[in-house]
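User: quick one, fold this
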Amino acid sequence: MTQDTIKSARERMKKALAHTTDQLRGIRTSRASSTLVDNIRVDYYGTPTPLSQVAQVSVPEPRTLVIKPFDMSAIKDIEKALQKSDLGISPSNDGKVIILNLPPLSGDQRNKYVAKAKEICEEGRITLRNLRREANKDTDNQLKAKDITEDVCHDLHDDVQSLLKEYEKLLSDVFDKKSKEILEV
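Assistant:
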């Protein structure tokens, strides 16, 4: 029962870290990447559909994204979705593909993107701390039910705390890497 608490907390923290990492992929860096458009949803026949399911995204040059729809009738919908997104890039359409030319980031834009990344990581930290609180509450409930002793409860609290520190460190590493990518000229 006690190891189930730790195992569950670890799995949930792993998912929280993966979610935060996915969110960070959508933040623009100095280089083009197909992950920039991963979170964009296209209104495809009335259904919000991930862009990757309606088009092929490629990076032919360091500052260019090319989006080729699988269904040419969706090209206008894809263009609308890109214009509505917070990428801040105007797509150009030649009838067959959509081209996104990423202009170089100014220092001010870089700082804004780093601040956005920091905000996303802080939300991730809050999630991790909430998961710690839930695991500790579960442990306390086991103690109240006399399923575990006070010593075991105390040890579990320590294990959950060290697990939190481990995942906070991983999250900090992810943030540092993303910040470096954003600030890279």
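User: anything notable?
Assistant: The beta strands are 41-44, 47-50, 55-61, 64-69, 92-93, 98-101.
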